[in-house]
Design brief:
Layout: H1 3-9, E1 31-33, E2 43-53, E3 60-70, E4 74-76, H2 78-86, H3 95-110, E5 114-121, E6 132-136, H4 141-152
Antiparallel strand pairs: 1-4, 2-3, 3-5, 5-6
Length: about 160
């Protein structure tokens, strides 16, 4: 596929008529070809304006979502990812569920070699919740990497005064 065909397949990038879904919408996600599939490298997204709803109280929860992945053949398009994350705005799930849903959707979409998702939520009711999940392709060094990073992901927990 040439560059023009690839860009034509991205329906959201550059669109002036963007529609924002207020309910969970995984179908908005789009991919493009990785130009460097023979190399391992990380892609990191920082999403500091993530919001979702508590499924019990319907109160809004605010947080930052960090997504890091090592792509294989496909990569997620950033505007589509932004719209996807925005679609959680009226979605009711616990923080832990939301992070796992995001990771699972991105695994289905891209089939990355490795991915991790961290949510750092602002305190509500005097407590903050920071769920972390990851995945490494089974039977590869990325599975071992996922195990290692899971065991070591929070070696340096932060102090309350740095939020």
């Amino acid at each position: 596929m040439n560059r023009e065909d690839e860009l034509r397949d991205l329906s959201l990038l550059g669109s002036q008529g963007t529609a924002y879904a207020f309910d969970y919408t995984p179908e908005v996600l789009e991919t493009f070809d990785n130009k460097h599939p023979n190399r391992d490298y990380f892609v990191k997204f920082n999403c500091p304006e993530f919001t979702t709803l508590c499924p019990k109280t319907n109160q809004p929860d605010f947080g930052t979502v960090y997504i890091k992945y090592i792509p294989d053949e496909k990569m997620v398009e950033s505007k589509a990812l932004k719209l996807y994350l925005f679609s959680f705005r009226n979605h009711g799930d616990f923080h832990e569920d939301s992070m796992n849903i995001i990771m699972n959707d991105l695994i289905r979409l891209m089939e990355p070699r490795y991915i991790e998702v961290l949510g750092k939520f602002t305190p509500r009711g005097g407590i903050s919740i920071d769920p972390y999940c990851n995945y490494g392709r089974p039977g590869t060094k990325y599975e071992e990497m996922a195990d290692y990073r899971m065991m070591n992901h929070d070696l340096y927990p932060e102090k309350v005064d740095n939020r």
